[in-house]
Design brief:
The chain is of the alpha/beta class. The protein is 50% helix and 13% strand. It folds into four domains: 136 residues, Rossmann fold (3-Layer(aba) Sandwich), CATH 3.40.50; 99 residues, Hect, E3 ligase catalytic domain fold (Alpha-Beta Complex); 155 residues, no CATH class; 60 residues.
Amino acid sequence: MNNHTRKFFIYTRKSTDTEDRQVRSISDQLAELKELAVKEQIEVVDIFVEKQTAKAPGRPVFNEMLLRIEQGEANGILAWHPDRLARNSVDGGKIIYLLDTEKLAELKFPTFWCDPTPQGKFMLSIAFSQSKYYVDNLSENIKRGKRNKVKDGIWPQMSPLGYLNVGGRIVVDKNIAPLIKKTFEAYSSGSFTLRELRDKFNGLGLKRKSGKELAVSNYQKLLKNPIYTGLMKYNGEIFEGKHEPIITKKLFDFVQEVMMRKSKPKSRGLKPFLYRGFFRCGECGCFITTETQKGHNYLRCTKRKNPCAQKYSREEIITSEIQKEIKKVSLPDDWASWMLAENRKDMLSEAQSSTLFADKTKADISLLNSKIEKLMNAYLENALSLEEYRDAKNALVSSKQLLKEKLSAFEQKANNRFELTEKFLKYNMELANECTNEEKLHLYKKVGSNFQIKDRTVFFEPRGAWKNLLNSGILGGNAFVSALRADPISASNSDFQFWRRGRDSNSRYLTVRWISSPLH
């Protein structure tokens, strides 16, 4: 071929892929290729610069160059190395086919020999195959490295929202993590749709790491990601992570239940009457509603089921009735103060709680570890399919995480029964204080349930500790309560000391037994 007919395209490629990091820069490639063109007396028709990976077909600049070669604009290519042209079988095949059809006459490389002879094309195909093997092998090594990382409890990818990549691990983003936790808590209440959740927390500043706003689908994905509990789901398998959790597994599971139920938001826009939805009619069982007449709020039965003879009641009268009824199941203020001091003495004297529960939980965790290990051995021995192994392991890892959270909660709240007793006594003291009814309403709901109004009188069922207190027989206007109200010191030195003696045979003395039911 005559020199004056040798028209070449220069093709350079530099991607950000790991395997290309040691390749010369595009400017270095161009300098050497231009020098080679002068030395070989080659006419350079055009220069193509590409920054896209050659792992897969579809490079726009590369495809444009081949199209122009087929149209006869050039009959040769100058490149740094064959791996700049192709790292996949499709692009490599296109180059060799153009050589076969003589659309492409020559390929020139500063570090590689190639001519259009059968031997040259054979060597070129080997070079393309080596490039593809390097990419495939590198990809497998990267995958293997990621699998090893996740087995060691290290998240192998870019950190999710709420975490930061630091030193090869993920750590909690102190600025975003509180919003992530609030997102889970808000959705678990059942009061928000995903769209409402998006509007609320986008407004609070929860955004993607790029700074763009989160879409509804992003919130759905976030709420389904177990990584916030300390677990990692990778390729369908759950692993224990070494990163700090943002939420508990219990909250995460509850959110999944809410999402499954597709809970609807609570009704909004209603007038905020104090006792809305609080009472039912003691005669017919319908809800009690509130309406305003002449500047006063009145409570009345809705009478939606059957005829009902109940009359209107002023809100102030009902408030007074509630306070009067709750006093019947509450401790006297001076007595509650004295018991609060005694409870704190007992809490200080019992420095260490029983370790029975902690030991049993640790044993259960150890047993689950053993089961997970046996499950892995069964999979390696082909006794289980990959799907069976993953399903069984995921269940065991989830159970283990719940046990770890229970153990952590127990260790953090070893004196929980004393705390509950103190909370109960403080509630009594709050109820005894004169304050606005709005502040007391949440306490009324803790004291009782099934609040009813009949003949302008309030009835309710004491719950939890207040029910236990009522059933103990020490309230209801008996002689002991009267004596206690008159002289708490002398009364407490007699009867209350008798209750405390029960501690000799059972460490859960009376005040603890009162609060054994949850204070909801």
